Amino acid sequence: MTQAGTAELATPVPTLKRRSPYPGWFFLPAAIIYGVLFLVPTVASLYFSLTRWTLFNSTFIGFDNFAQFLREPFLIKGLINTVLYAVITSSLKVILGLLLAVLLTSQVAARGYLRSVVFFPVLVSTVGVGITFTVLMHPTNGMINEGLALLGIKGPGWLTNPNLALFSVALVDVWKGVGLATVIYIAGIVAIPKDYYEAARIDGATKLQNFFYVTLPLCRPATVTVITLSFIGGLRTFDLIWAMTKGGPGFASDTVASVIYKQYQSGFYGLSTAGNVVLFVLIAVLVVPLTMLLNRKEGHQ
Amino acid sequence: MSFVRRHWLSALAILLSIVVFLVPFAFIILTAFKDQKQSALLDFSWPAGNHLWSNIVEVVTTRNWMLLTAFINSTILTVASVTLLVIFSAMVGFVLQRRKTRWNGLIEFLILAGLMIPPAVVPTIWLLQGTGLFAKLHGMVLIEVAYSLPFSILLYRAFISTIPRELDEAAIIDGARPADVFFRVILPLLWPVTVTNIVVQSVAIFNDFTNPLYYLPGNANATVQLTLYNFQSQYNTSYNLLFTNILLITIPPLIVFLFFNRQIVAGMTAGAVKG
Questions:
Q1: In this structure, is the dihedral angle defined by the CA atoms of residues A246, A251, A257 and A262, taken in order, positive or negative?
Q2: Considering only Cβ atoms within 10 Å of each terminal Cβ, which end of chain A, N or C, has fewer?
């Protein structure tokens, strides 16, 4: 307001503000689509999660849906699985992505080929990857276990063993997504000035020391990006779980997102929406402090 | 010593990459060449005969040419969403970066919220039904635009900050109207990041499974990812057809990969690390 006032005083043209070269209506199309199709449902979910709902009419039942979430063992299981899945996939992506990036920025042979082959799965259909690995992980005929049998190892029932199913899906997620982490790390490593390595060389640093004292601390922004991206992605995961196990065997690999879909399919719309609210509270509670922590440490350096 | 070690490491890396990454893709291709009986063995063997063409014909014609319909639907969905997305997010990115007002904080908060918060599924369906957009392709287009806007805006905003303001001012002095400044001066300059946006978002939308599953039910509306899913439950044992289907829907991303490999990598990292 005051800004507009001084602008009018300083110049004799009264229509200056209206003719700003950066028109506010440029926000409109995006704002309408985003507001109507994303914000309205998100706000509405806060109300509908407190109701028993048939899409046509809703009965207010207070926190019953949430109470049910905390009472049913399989819903709790879904909650724990979601966090476990996100932690496993994001930590593996950080470790493997970093190691691959170090390898792929070194003088390794066939560097271009290796970069391409690691990145390509990122672009392929998640459901297609899920179906392929479901077949490869077949307990008796699957290629993975037949390969292990050649080495004299009896492979486990990757997707049929309830204790293992979630981890198997998480491994496939890493297989598909590690290329993106690698690419982000490559960008981070390439941006490190060469002087640091030269100084380290003069000081007689070994390759391992180079990695721990130069590369690792200086590609911290990349680490923050990889962790945040893969952690949020892991918490929201649905398509891979659905393509590979449908949350089974039993409820062994259910995540909050697959619970949301199952409740929706069975017509429990209120409960399904409560699942949505649980998921975004979970994301807010875990991701916001995580990003704050990661960014604070970065500031200290 | 280091010479030997380096080559040993390279050899190991190449060998591992073949086992871990190429063998699964080779499995898809080999299975697509097999007949039903041989594919049911699920083994990694050479096809007994070339059945690829008959598999393709069967996959494409199954359920009243569903895959063809799906390819048309997916293409319309992808092209329409990405077009709207590019124009709208570039407009937001431009004004957001150039004009500092007290709304900027709120807008930035909403963008971050959009990146983090999972969409509330059933309320969205309720809203789509209320507006007559449920199970309609144009409704699905608007949904994809709404969900992809935050990331696109971030990419554009980071890039626009590298374009000097003097350019806008010069255009205005030459008598350009505000819309002209954007559409005729700035938008063409955004081409590199536009390509990144087009590539990244079209791959994401083409591969999207979850949103069409919820918001676009019905066989006439199937997208390619859903044919895979429908197909699997109908032909539980016809692995040759299932993998032919996977192979066919992997072709568009493969083409994107061959043409834009470098561009994707450069753009994604620029956006991801700066954003």
A1: positive
A2: N
